[in-house]
Amino acid sequence: MQLTPLHIQGGRELGGEIAVQSSKNAALPIIVASLLSSEPVTLHGIPRLSDVDTILDLAHHIGTRHAWVGPNSLSLYTPEILNTHAPYALVSKMRASFIIMGAILARAGKATVSMPGGCAWGPRPVDQHVKAFRALGAQITEDGGDFAAERTGSLNGTFAFELLTVGGTHNAVLAATLGDGVVVLENASIDTDVIDMIEFLNSLGARIEGAGTNTLTIHGVPALRGGEYTVIPDRIEAATFMIAAAATRSRITLTNVRPDHLRAVTEKLTEMGVDITESGKTLVVDATNRDLKPVNVTTQSYPGFPTDVQPQMSTLLATIPGTSVVQDPVYPDRLTHVAELHRMGADITVSGYTQVIQGAKLHAAPVKAADLRAGAALFIAALTCEGETVIDGVQFLNRGYERLAERLRGLGADARQPEPALASAMD
Ligand SMILES: CC(=O)N[C@H]1[C@@H](OP(=O)(O)OP(=O)(O)OC[C@H]2O[C@@H](n3ccc(=O)[nH]c3=O)[C@H](O)[C@@H]2O)O[C@H](CO)[C@@H](O)[C@@H]1O
Ligand SMILES: C=C(OP(=O)(O)O)C(=O)O
């Protein structure tokens, strides 16, 4: 279905409180990890997002039955693997779905998964996933755009990732959890979403040691039991709203946050002059009556400044007088927000993965999101300027932000997404 654009009448101060959703990027691998158990699993804090629907469609194809048992609670049950093939039509919708390979391989001994391909901002290789599987004893062949993996026994041995990869670590952990081998992963990701999946698996009886360090030791276990688990808060969504508050020089309160997961973002905003107060799972972000300063930002793997917050931060800096430099070596091509921000009057010069940003006053314009966080960048830009900005490409925002227009309205923004019937009547 063609979604109607998001209309934002900007130039208003935000205020009030917003409950941050649970982490999309933890929920997705945890849903996949539930396939390792043949017993029922209940997950709480699952955000209602199109990416969640996509992974549930894929899991359904593999053999998972699911039911929503509360607004954000999901019951999953995979008594047996019915299909070991994850086809292109399902995998290509979301690159993160490639980690289904590790789960199917663990449970069924073989898996065929389509190559995920690129994404809106460029290539996103999976060579480290494949190298890990091979090094741990799986046979991998490539044919007709598919990777086929097979193991004769349990995975075993040591693999050192050549770079830090969140998805590669998820995939290798999933593949190694069942069996009687011992797998050591070196240079593994310490991302919060990796830790959360490991804590979930351990709660079902897995024996994975070292979560949060660069060395993971996975002692295979014969089977996992069922269980119940609550997903961590979404640090990327929290950061997006913190930046929206700074960009509109507002004061807002965020609940359901893990301040310890947000250090890099908090430090940068504080350096700019934003006042941030932490209290348990609550953050108050205050940028009222402040002259914010330009800063330089370079993305890094967790705990560094997240690439998933780079487009939003670039947008904030595009409104702050002075020169800021933003570099995204994690995803050097993640720049689809730039041309759209130019349409709104931003002064951003790109060279490789570097954006040199001269602060300017942005103005409303029709714009189009080409990916999820570029969409976030555009709604932040829209909130800062007088007049109405119409943002197309809402399907990308729906991948990662639950009920966005409604929740922005809860903060006092004038944001609406006309119903399709109303929109066509207005044409
Ligand atoms: C669903 C999900 O959780 N997505 C997140 C995950 O993506 P994803 O897991 O795909 O990202 P990775 O951590 O794997 O990628 C990090 C870097 O490693 C490179 N790489 C990765 C794998 C590989 O086999 N070879 C290789 O070269 C990538 O091109 C990138 O430059 O982490 C990214 C980096 O924090 C985030 O932007 C994504 O939002
Ligand atoms: C890029 C993201 O997700 P994915 O890796 O699924 O594209 C994201 O969450 O910002």
TrEMBL record:
Cellular compartment(s): Cytoplasm
Signal peptide residue numbers: none
Reactions catalysed according to its record: phosphoenolpyruvate + UDP-N-acetyl-alpha-D-glucosamine = UDP-N-acetyl-3-O-(1-carboxyvinyl)-alpha-D-glucosamine + phosphate
EC number: 2.5.1.7
Record key words, sorted: Cell cycle, Cell division, Cell shape, Cell wall biogenesis/degradation, Cytoplasm, Peptidoglycan synthesis, Pyruvate, Transferase
GO cellular component assignments: cytoplasm
GO biological process, one term: cell division
Sequence positions that bind UDP-N-acetyl-alpha-D-glucosamine: 95, 124-128, 308, 330
Molecular-function annotations in GO: UDP-N-acetylglucosamine 1-carboxyvinyltransferase activity
Main location: cytoplasm
Enzymatic class: transferase
Pfam family, one: EPSP_synthase
Translocase keyword on record: no
Active-site residues annotated for this sequence: 119
Pathway(s) of this molecule: Cell wall biogenesis; peptidoglycan biosynthesis
Domain Enolpyruvate transferase: 9-408
Top-level taxon in the UniProt lineage: Bacteria
Record has Chaperone as a keyword: no
Modified residues (2-(S-cysteinyl)pyruvic acid O-phosphothioketal): 119
Binding site for phosphoenolpyruvate: 24-25
Matching HAMAP family: MurA
Function: Cell wall formation. Adds enolpyruvyl to UDP-N-acetylglucosamine.
Entries under PANTHER family matching the protein: UDP-N-ACETYLGLUCOSAMINE 1-CARBOXYVINYLTRANSFERASE
Family of this protein: Belongs to the EPSP synthase family. MurA subfamily.
Name the UniProt record assigns to this protein: UDP-N-acetylglucosamine 1-carboxyvinyltransferase
Taxonomic source organism: Deinococcus puniceus
